[in-house]
Amino acid sequence: MKKFTPGFWLQRPIHWSLVFSLASVLVSCSSSDIPLGPTSLNSRSTEEQPTLSGNGRFLAFVSNRNGSHQILIYDLQNQSFIRTPGLNRPETIAESPSLSYTGRYIVYLTSDQGRPVVALYDRATQQSQILTPVYRGWVRKPGISPDGRYVVFETASRGQWDVEVLDRGPNIELDIPNGATVAPPNSQ
């Protein structure tokens, strides 16, 4: 007795059509039209977590393009990378960047003795400092106000994720557009 399986011959055309469809998608998505190079925004490496400065000129993102997990700053107006000596330390992971209005201040997550901490990099002084050295819990998702005075982040110090606001104080140099006035905070 000969067994007849009508579904078998239908599966073969579906299989080949799927193969041809995937091949055409791969060919149409080739990166040959993406500009690549040391000064190009795009690369063949993984790049993620983009954030813009308040004025829209600077873009910060996490990249693996130089063989390590680092934060890069790109000037969209000049279409070039900004040098940031002291921002990325060897053998540490930097992630979750946030920029102030003109991109002078960058807050980000990094590691200190194996624990994530919130750090701040000042492009004017080219120095980085850890803002949360005493937090007992984990921290994540930092952000900075446009003027650079306030830093927010999530912390798990109470066993759940809570929001913390860190005031860097009235004596810091604010990141404001040239000629702008700043009203003092209300003291109550």
UniProtKB/TrEMBL annotation:
InterPro entries recorded: 6-blade_b-propeller_TolB-like, WD40
Domain of life: Bacteria
Family statement: Belongs to the TolB family.
PANTHER family linked: PROTEIN TOLB HOMOLOG, SLR0505 PROTEIN
Protein name listed in UniProt: WD40-like beta propeller
